[in-house]
Write a structure and sequence with these properties.
alpha+beta, two-stranded antiparallel ribbon, 1 helix
Amino acid sequence: MAGPGVSVPQTVTVHTRDHGSVTIAEPAWCLGVHVAGGFRADIEHAGEDVELLVDTARGQARLLTACVSERPFSPTDTSVFVAVELGCDWHPFSSETLADLVDQLVIHALGTLRPLVRKLRALEGEAP
């Protein structure tokens, strides 16, 4: 029994088709939603979604979604990563590659989209 101020590690049991019931440590950031009936390698911890929403003339549109994830039994990589939904697919990012993505988004916004703002403002000011 843990004393005051001592947290007890949480676990979760997920039923898999290839290893039966698998009990694993549950990270504090995981939302606790685990799909049963898959393969053990498919078990994934996922944190809260962080969305980039943009206001458009037709309402809000989702540009991208990201969340902390981990696949503790992955045959290729068991490290914690950030999954980013770009288009219709999820892509894994380490802290280094996520920093690169952030830099690319900033460069695109300032180097490509900001000049389009100036061009559009100039075009809107022209008489037909």
